[in-house]
Specification:
Elements: E1 8-13, H1 17-29, E2 34-40, H2 44-54, E3 58-60, H3 63-70, E4 74-77, H4 84-93, E5 97-100, H5 108-115, E6 125-127, H6 135-146, E7 152-162, H7 176-179, H8 183-186, H9 189-199, E8 202-210, E9 221-228, E10 233-239, E11 241-253, E12 256-262, E13 271-275, H10 283-286, H11 298-311, H12 319-338, E14 342-343, H13 352-355, H14 367-377
Parallel strand pairs: 1-2, 1-4, 2-3, 4-5, 5-6, 7-10
Antiparallel strand pairs: 7-11, 8-9, 8-14, 9-10, 11-12, 12-13
Helix pairs in contact: 4-5, 6-9, 9-12
Domain GFO/IDH/MocA-like oxidoreductase: 138-245
Protein name: Putative dehydrogenase
GO molecular function: nucleotide binding
């Protein structure tokens, strides 16, 4: 990276909707700290259109040439999931820090392969989990640390979204080889990451999943019961079949219930604190008077990432901190497909659910899946 007084040189890979809709506006919001020097996409016309719109000088159709010519400090990956691992490794090998859209990669094996290319002091790979960065989440996390709400007991984590049949006509969607999973992997991952940010490490999961309505290889709905190291229990539902869409998390502590309801992002107004009867009127249990309203956003996560780059330290949503939710998703699929409860401390570093998220013998959307699951349990 250049001197601390200079702007960080950023390059973007992928010129689709997530780049134009989220990352380029985010980079623009931090233009005092970061300069977008290049964008790459296999579609040259799209590159030209996006580069013209955002005033980006470097235009490439090949990541290797872009890295060689532009020498960015920060590489931002806005590609389909199947391309994440290659982009992450190329960026790290070129000496760039990398910020990658969700899901991080397709498997735990891929995640570990990427991590092997990080340096002791960087560059580091980090992943887009923006919901944990808003002021509401940070307030609740601090209250958990300070034990002002009592012990966490029960939680609910719902990602109830709606994706049409046409949504899955995009060739890479709904396929294990290119998306890595269904709504657990590509949609609910944000809410689940926030759940773990607040409650900490999970210890075991029991799950079911199936394809009930969409023409996909993966699931279109999953449900899971989860235990945590702190003794709490949670119920998780991920769906793309829900016409009234909502993202909802609820945390029941001994002394209060804390809830957040939104769709794709929250601010302070999305949160409510309800004290238990014995804590009525106690400000410590009824919420907080925020000093500032920081929404969950790419903008806030990028601010922290830029701070980490300046300090030369690992950012949040990176390393083991970024792996936790991917471990959970692998265990969720293993539980759903085998009919067994899966403990985190028994996750294997080899085998079906390390090198993949899915056993091909388990066919979603078919009566055969139940038979396979029952046969495995027996």
């Amino acid at each position: 990276m250049t001197a601390s007084s200079a702007r960080i040189r950023a390059a973007v890979v992928g010129a689709g909707g997530i780049a134009s809709g989220a990352h380029l506006p985010t980079l623009k919001a931090h233009e005092d700290r970061v300069e977008v020097v290049a964008i790459a996409d296999v579609d040259a016309d799209r590159v030209a259109a996006v580069a013209d719109e955002w005033g980006i000088p470097g235009r490439h159709t090949d990541v290797d040439s872009m890295l060689a010519v532009e020498e960015p400090d920060l590489l931002i990956l806005c590609t389909p999931p199947v391309a994440h691992k290659e982009g992450l490794i190329k960026g790290l090998k070129a000496g760039a820090w990398v910020w990658c859209e969700k899901p991080p990669v397709l498997t735990l094996a891929e995640y570990d392969e990427v991590a092997a290319h990080e340096g002791a002091q960087g560059p580091f790979a980090s992943y887009v989990f923006q919901h944990r960065f808003g002021s509401g989440a940070q307030q609740l996390k601090q209250q958990v640390r300070d034990n002002t709400l009592g012990r966490p007991l029960v939680a609910v984590c719902h990602t109830l979204w709606y994706r049409t049949h046409g949504y899955y006509e995009v060739p890479w969607r709904g396929k294990w080889a290119t998306e890595g999973g269904g709504p657990a992997m590509g949609h609910g991952i944000h809410q689940m990451d926030l759940l773990f940010e607040i409650l900490g490490d999970w210890t075991e999961v029991t799950a079911v999943a199936d394809a009930l309505d969409r023409d996909v290889e993966t699931e279109d709905v999953s449900m899971a019961t989860v235990r945590f190291a702190n003794g709490a229990m949670a119920s998780i539902v991920n769906s793309v079949l829900s016409p009234r869409e909502v993202s909802y998390l609820r945390f029941d502590f001994q002394d209060a219930t804390v809830e957040v309801e939104h769709l794709y992002g929250y601010d302070n107004s999305s949160w409510t604190w309800t004290p238990a009867p014995h804590r009525a009127g106690d400000e410590a249990a009824t919420g907080w008077v925020p000093q500032e309203n920081i929404p969950s956003s790419h903008k806030q996560q990028l601010a922290e990432l830029l701070d980490a780059m300046a300090a030369g330290v690992r950012p949040r949503a990176s390393g083991d901190d970024g792996r936790r939710v991917l471990e959970f998703i692998a265990a969720l699929y293993e539980s759903a497909e085998t009919g067994r409860t899966v403990a985190r401390d028994q996750l294997a570093a080899t085998g079906t659910y390390y090198t993949g998220m899915h056993d091909p013998a388990f066919i979603y959307g078919s009566a055969e899946n139940t038979a396979v699951s029952k046969e495995t349990v027996q």
